[in-house]
Amino acid sequence: MAKLGALCVYCGSSEGLAPEHRAAAAALGRAAAERGVRIVFGGGRVGLMGILADAALAAGGKVTGVIPEHLQDWEVGHNGLDDLRVVNTMHSRKQLMCEEADAFCALPGGFGTLDETFEIVTWKQLRLHDKPVVLLNSAGFWDPLMALIDHQSRAGYIRQGHLDLLQAVDTVEAVFDAIAAAPEPQIEGLSWRA
Asked: Greatest CA span in the chain, whole angstroms?
């Protein structure tokens, strides 16, 4: 990619148990700020989401949060952001995050992180966008998922050519390297509207 202006990050609203995951979230936020890359994320101030946003802000970065009305209280919307957008639905959240980002990175998380990550990969498979999707495999968190995807491919459910729709890397630096090495996106915006 010629220029990464905004990175959408999917991650947990919980901090999880592994200190490496918290460190990776903070390191990604700082690294984005140092590179002048705006973070786009789920808008919460708790869990890995909060750690990511706080680290980016502390390093002088720009952060856009996107949170649905019904999660504003539950995920405790981050009021310290430059830009907190409250939307009506989960789908609106995911669509706006996609539109705002040049690339995507998934940190550790739970069902919501999986949902967001797989929806954006599926949209890429369906050619609704062609932006890079990278998993930050902190402490091997994504190893079981990558093994499952390999199993799905060997079972004939994921084409070999679709295995490169996302990639797992082990370091924050490798996230930015993978995005930089990706082809320039050719699809303008989402090719459909909700």
From this structure: 47
Residue 77 DSSP code = B
Residue 170, in any domain of the structure: yes
132: its two tokens: 């890079």
For residue range 129-144, what is the model confidence (pLDDT) as tens digits? Answer: 999 999 999 999 999 9
Q: How many domains does the chain have?
A: 1
CATH no. for residue 139?
A: 3.40.50.450
* Residues 6+ positions from 145 with CB-CB distance below 8 Å: 135
Helix (H, G, I), strand (E, B) or coil at 63: strand
Length of the chain: 194
Confidence bin at 193 (pLDDT 50/70/90): very low
Return d(Cα 155, Cα 89) in angstroms, integer. 35
Domain holding 42, by residue range, is 6-181
